[in-house]
């Protein structure tokens, strides 16, 4: 087991310098002034104390056996930290790295993106292909997402068994998202999440079940105005305009369909003659016009009020069918029309009509 300490760094740096020149050796002052520390592929299992190296800006610790992030509180100037291909299970002890811009944590055992609440300058987060137990997936702590919403531009969560992107909807500055080879399968949830990522320009979703959804690409393009590249293919302005029109037409189609279904459901629930049902349907769904005078409430339609025209009962037109009393409706204007017709007929019968001479 190898522990990363100041002595270990001094020994390794001296060996590297001797390979370059046998006559030149690095002084401690030169060592402490290092800005880049390359300790990758060194079989390091833990991070010890090397607080003298305060000028470090980049630390390479990938391809080791590190299981815990620790003892980095001194590196206030650090901008890049490479910890991929280790055995880290938790993101922690990074609060003092206020200048950190790039963090590589891929190929570890991390299940929760957390501990990033004070990293206000982090622009790149690579946390792909975590070695997670069966049934677990990568999750995001809302506190870390809140901080990253003002700075993060590149996010790689490929191969992390993610089923939804709803937890990262707050990343307003995100420009590049790699979510390939996950378990995203809900197209509605996906389009809802993508539609609020207002800075997203490059999106990769290959290897997800949702990509087999009918018109998957069309739905994403129509719900996001900023994506320029989707799954490695450039989106043209012509394609975007076409998808926008398609979205509007689809919305109008579903509106008409829902109104038609509502119309049928309401009229079907009323035990009325077919002609009256049609009249009720026109009165309920007409866009404008005077309201009809009588309102009838029925428990069959969830106690909603429906508008019906007034009708009169003929004295001799009542019938009894199947034990039910059925009145015969007459419209008031029909009665007036009949009266005018009968009066005109009587005048014609009593008057002699003279034909013009031939």
TrEMBL record:
Presence of keyword Repeat: yes
Keyword terms: Leucine-rich repeat, Repeat
SUPFAM superfamilies: L domain-like (SSF52058)
CDD domains noted in UniProt: PPP1R42 (cd21340)
Name by which UniProt lists this protein: Protein phosphatase 1 regulatory subunit 42-like
Repeat listed as a keyword: yes
Underlying gene: LOC108631945
InterPro entries: Leu-rich_rpt, LRR_dom_sf, SDS22/Internalin_LRR
């Amino acid at each position: 087991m190898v522990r990363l300490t100041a002595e270990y760094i001094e020994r390794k740096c001296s060996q590297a310098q001797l390979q370059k020149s046998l006559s030149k050796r690095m002084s401690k002052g030169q060592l402490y002034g290092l800005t880049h520390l390359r300790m990758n592929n060194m079989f390091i299992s833990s991070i010890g104390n090397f607080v003298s190296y305060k000028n470090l800006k980049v630390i390479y610790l990938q391809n080791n056996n590190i299981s815990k992030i620790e003892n980095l509180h001194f590196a206030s100037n650090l901008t890049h930290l490479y910890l991929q291909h280790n055995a880290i299970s938790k993101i922690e002890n990074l609060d003092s790295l206020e200048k950190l811009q790039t963090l590589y944590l891929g190929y570890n055992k991390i299940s929760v993106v957390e501990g990033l609440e004070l990293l206000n300058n982090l622009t790149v987060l690579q946390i792909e292909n975590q070695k997670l137990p069966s049934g677990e997936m990568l999750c995001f702590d809302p506190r870390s997402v809140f901080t990253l919403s003002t700075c993060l531009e590149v996010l790689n969560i490929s191969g992390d068994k993610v089923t939804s992107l709803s937890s990262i909807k707050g990343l307003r500055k995100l420009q590049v998202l790699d979510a390939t080879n996950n378990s995203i399968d809900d197209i509605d949830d996906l389009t809802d999440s993508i539609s609020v990522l207002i800075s997203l320009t490059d999106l990769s979703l290959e290897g997800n079940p949702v990509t087999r959804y009918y018109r998957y690409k069309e739905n994403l393009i129509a719900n996001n105005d900023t994506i320029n590249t989707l799954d490695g293919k450039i989106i043209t302005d012509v394609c975007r305009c076409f998808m926008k029109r398609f979205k509007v037409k689809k919305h109008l189609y579903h509106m008409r369909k829902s109104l038609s279904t509502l119309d049928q459901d309401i009229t079907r629930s009323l035990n009325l003659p077919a002609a009256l049902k049609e009249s009720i349907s026109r009165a309920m769904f007409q866009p404008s016009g005077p309201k009809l005078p009588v309102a009838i409430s029925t428990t069959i339609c969830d106690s909603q009020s429906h508008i019906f025209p007034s009708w009169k009962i003929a004295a001799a037109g009542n019938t009894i069918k199947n034990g039910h009393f059925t009145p015969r409706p007459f419209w008031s204007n029909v009665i007036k029309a009949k009266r005018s017709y009968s009066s005109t007929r009587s005048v014609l019968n009593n008057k002699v009509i003279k034909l013009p001479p031939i």
